[in-house]
Design goal:
The chain is 74% helix and 0% strand. The longest helix has 30 residues. The mean pLDDT is 86.
């Protein structure tokens, strides 16, 4: 009975006590209601455990859960931080966070989402470090009297609380009942925008403190990194709850902001969503595919932004990564859309960008688009093939001037991937470009690249990709185009290069000969035999060093054997007699 009287007292006394003027600001709300709420929170340890939940539930319900539930939770978490750091009190008193979690679980789903959102929003209002000169009138916790360690811990505790709330079984059960409500998805969209702002703020504060040398201690550095990671975890929790339509509309809306940091984080979320989409579970004409692809044009349009500032470069890279991820899954299902997107990828601000990072990402996206769309991109071939060859020629030229830089190797690997996709899917239209392509693939600086750290080394990847392009050439290019181009290149270029280049080119021709079909073999066996005779003549030149002779002979004999085993007796016998 006494507790019933207390409840009635709270319901009658509290409203007039904290009544605010119309349209009162958050700072005024904190000033009026903050001291009242802090009285209840400070008295928590003096309230019997079996009375706490009922008392605080009445307190929140009476004052209004939408306005004051986040305030009560933030004050409880502040109390929890103080007890954790001081390691004082009994165990049940120190674990105030679990009590706050149970308190929020008693609210509606919308109120739980709102509470987590406001907690994250308040973190963006906090200074990087507590100071008497910094005013924080919009938050309920006492920032002025906090120590730096306490403020760092509060960030972690608040974000961890939001993560635990959104991933708890109680919340999941309540959310499943209202998941389709428009109001719930609207709250989730607002939570995404808030969390992105908070993440950007925390990252900026972290970078500023690092630049000022205030994070020398490993504990402080680890705490800041963990705070940003927790922000991303909460973001993932929110995005997992949003339906696809709401997620897409949220992404499109946030991409229209001018904040590049927000855009980059939105693109990372979009890429995760695209990668998680399983096309095997939907039909080809499904509206679900069309829904998620509604954001692709706005994403691709970001690549058209002019400039090479560091943050803009990172944003463009994220957009191009989204394009590549989406193309792998959906380009074959929606070719018209991705043909349009290809025009944005190969634009001067993207594929022809002076930024190596942007150009590399654009080349990777182009490689995926060529692989998935195939012949649909043939009309655009004159627009992007010269650019790919230009990138290859420029990087190979730089490799000969100095040691290979990682950025150059990355650009070279990306350009080779794009060229491989072009060769495999548009082989009949590359005859004019074969000679410059041979010159690039056989360039001494490219042949001299050797990997040092296994398969994950960029140098090894470049050599493998160069060999893959050569393989694609002799497997995909029609022999009537490839062999004459090879013979002409040998006479003009390869025969004048060093032993390593000549050996590599002879091996290339040998693999081409070994892959010929019967009709092509009948047409080209005599020119091929003449080619090999000329190569063997090189080894007879007394001006060629013995070491080079051995390299060329080994390559020539191996290539010649690939050619010979394709011949029958009638074809081989006259050649053998002339050879002898």
């Amino acid at each position: 009975y006494s507790f019933h009287v207390i409840q009635q007292t709270l319901e009658k006394v509290l409203p007039p006590l904290v009544r605010l003027p119309n349209a009162a600001s958050r700072a005024v709300q904190v000033t009026h209601a903050g001291p009242v709420l802090r009285v209840f929170v400070d008295a928590l340890s003096h309230i019997p455990r079996h009375r706490r939940m009922a008392l605080f539930s009445t307190l929140v319900r009476t004052m209004g859960p939408t306005e004051y539930a986040p305030a009560v939770v933030s004050l409880l978490l502040e109390k929890n931080v103080a007890k954790i750091l001081k390691a004082s009190g009994q165990a049940e008193d120190r674990d105030v966070a679990s009590f706050a979690l149970s308190l929020v679980h008693g609210m509606s789903t919308e109120e739980q989402i709102h509470t987590a959102t406001v907690l994250a929003r308040d973190l963006a209002q906090l200074p990087a470090e507590p100071s008497a000169d910094v005013e924080c009138g919009d938050v309920y916790i006492d920032v002025v009297h906090m120590q730096t360690r306490e403020l760092r811990t509060y960030r972690l505790v608040a974000l961890d609380f939001a993560h635990q709330l959104l991933t708890s079984r109680q919340f999941a059960a309540a959310f499943s009942v209202v998941a389709t409500k428009a109001s719930v998805n609207s709250l989730l969209a607002a939570a995404t925008a808030t969390l992105l702002e908070t993440t950007a703020t925390l990252a900026q504060q972290h970078a500023q403190l690092s630049a000022e040398g205030k994070l020398s201690a490993n504990v402080a550095e680890t705490a800041w990194r963990k705070a940003v990671q927790l922000c991303y975890s909460v973001l993932d929790d929110v995005n997992a709850l949003m339906d696809r339509r709401t997620f897409v509309s949220t992404v499109v809306g946030l991409l229209q902001q001018n904040d590049l940091k927000v855009q980059r984080k939105v693109l990372a979320l979009a890429n995760t969503k695209l990668a998680a989409f399983d096309t095997r579970l939907v039909e080809q004409g499904s509206a679900e595919i069309d829904e998620i692809l509604e954001m692709m044009v706005p994403v691709a349009q970001l690549t058209a932004t002019q400039g090479d500032a560091a943050e803009l470069v990172a944003c463009k890279q994220a957009a191009l990564l989204c394009v590549a991820t989406a193309a792998k899954k959906f380009a074959a299902l929606r070719p018209v859309l991705f043909t349009e997107i290809t025009g944005m990828v190969i634009a001067p601000s993207s594929l022809q960008s002076t930024s190596v990072a942007v150009a590399s990402s654009a080349l990777v996206a182009l490689a995926v688009l060529c692989s998935e769309l195939g012949s649909r991109l043939i009309p655009r071939l004159p627009q992007y093939l010269p650019t790919v060859l230009k990138h290859l020629h420029a990087v190979v030229g730089r490799l000969s001037d100095s040691a290979a830089l990682q950025d150059d190797l990355a650009l070279l690997a990306s350009a080779l991937s794009a060229m491989q996709a072009i060769v495999e899917n548009m082989s009949a239209f590359l005859a004019p470009s074969l000679s410059p392509l041979f010159a690039i693939l056989m360039h001494p600086s490219l042949r001299a690249i050797k990997g040092a750290n296994g398969a994950n080394d960029l140098s090894s990847q470049v050599r493998e990709k160069a060999d893959s392009v050569l393989t694609a050439l002799y497997k995909s290019i029609p022999p009537r185009q490839l062999l004459p181009a090879q013979f002409a290149f040998y006479q003009k270029e390869a025969s004048k290069q060093g032993a390593e280049t000549l050996a590599a080119f002879v091996d290339f021709v040998g693999k081409t000969a070994g892959s010929l079909q019967r009709n092509h073999l009948m047409q080209f066996y005599k020119p091929l035999f003449k080619f090999f005779l000329s190569v063997f003549d090189v080894t007879r030149n007394p001006m060629v060093p013995l070491a080079d002779v051995s390299v060329i002979e080994d390559a020539a004999l191996s290539a010649f054997m690939r050619f010979v085993i394709k011949l029958n007796e009638n074809l081989f016998k006259p050649l053998f007699l002339s050879f002898v």
